[in-house]
Design a protein that fits this description.
Strand order of the largest sheet: 2-1-3-4-5-6
Low-confidence stretches: none
Largest sheet: 6 strands, parallel
Structural class: alpha/beta
Oligomer: single chain
Distance between the termini: 14 Å
CATH superfamily of the largest domain: Glycogen Phosphorylase B
């Protein structure tokens, strides 16, 4: 039996993986107790007892990490019952919330049989810090949606247009409050909640459009922009700070979101996503956002058309769960 614990989560990536496992015929052994943080705790607690009852020798349990207090418990129950575990990493506590040391993180992850890391760079970091577990690379998170990009795409003109959707508070994305002054000749379209009041009063190259639902974005983004921006941190000159530095290791779900909307992406040159994006012709990598006006204007219509075609092809793979399915298949072969 292939199985998992489907725990209600505010995390979009985790919900999509649960949906994929259900579509793949995996058994959900969770004990549902409702919605909300308290209900999630009891769901996890009661699900541990259900694992004790239901898991059998030879079964495979897929765990989405982190799983708070019950991650190691699941691994130990599986081992005791003669089952195997595959762990899909969503976030590393060493970086995401900085509540774990690398040593503590590796010690936790050592209880599983196979790890699916985001990319080769993250897997190399795990090995460098002592991980002895078998490793598989996901490459990019899939993104599920019933929405489809509009057939009407944005007409490229002399002024390239790129979009950013997500957390826009100064604490997380301080670069947003600097970008207008370095992108003359481009148009920046911003979606999200939390913009500081009056911040956009003097903007000349940027437009703030407020919050938009993910499905609405997928349907309409390609009609309003040429590119999706994957950036984080304190400055336009590279991704810095706690949030920005994490891009050196992780696969931001935002990249999958833009590609699912059919948009080629702009990523930081030093990010772990840059090799995948560039090798697959899905966008460009820059060291600073100040490079964008010259870089984007230099891209010919034929070059952009090729990037757009690749993004449109990738959106179908993301919606089908191609990368998760492939990674799980590799993990099962490694067991």
């Amino acid at each position: 039996m292939y199985c998992y614990l489907g725990v209600e989560s505010p995390n979009t990536a985790k919900r999509h993986v649960d949906q994929l496992m259900a579509c793949m015929g995996y058994a959900d052994l969770s004990v549902q107790t409702g919605k909300g943080a308290v209900a999630r705790f009891f769901c996890k607690l009661f699900s541990m007892f259900n694992l004790m009852l239901k898991l059998k020798a030879g079964d495979v349990l897929v765990i989405q990490y982190p799983f708070k207090k019950f991650y190691v418990t699941q691994c130990r129950i599986a081992r005791m019952k003669g089952a195997k575990t595959i762990t899909l990493i969503h976030d590393l506590g060493t970086f995401r919330r900085r509540k774990l040391t690398a040593e503590q993180e590796i010690r936790r992850l050592s209880h599983t049989d196979v790890i699916i890391g985001h990319n080769p760079t993250m897997n190399a970091w795990l090995v460098e810090h002592g991980c002895k577990v078998l490793l598989v690379s996901l490459d990019i998170f899939d993104y599920l949606s019933e929405a489809e990009p509009s057939a009407d795409v944005h007409r490229r003109g002399s002024e390239p247009v790129f979009v950013f959707a997500g957390g826009i508070s100064r604490r997380k994305s301080a670069f947003i409050y600097q970008i207008d002054s370095v992108i003359g000749g481009c148009r920046f379209v911003l979606y999200g909640s939390g913009l500081e009041q009056g911040s956009d009063a003097s903007w000349k190259n940027s437009t703030y459009c407020g919050h938009i639902g993910s499905d609405d974005f997928i349907r309409s983004a390609a009609t309003k922009a040429d590119w999706g921006l994957v950036w984080d941190g304190d400055t336009v000159d590279g991704c810095t700070g706690v949030w920005g530095d994490y891009l050196r290791l992780n696969n931001p779900h935002k990249a999958s979101f833009y590609l699912r909307a059919g948009l080629p992406v702009i990523v930081w040159r030093e990010s772990a996503m840059a090799p995948f994006v560039c090798d697959n012709g899905l966008g460009i990598a820059v060291g600073s956002l100040s490079e964008l006006p010259a870089r984007l204007r230099a891209i010919t219509d034929d070059e952009y058309a090729a990037l757009k075609k690749n993004a449109m092809s990738m959106k179908d793979k993301l919606n089908d769960g191609y990368h998760f399915r492939r990674a799980v298949e590799a993990a099962l072969k490694a067991l």
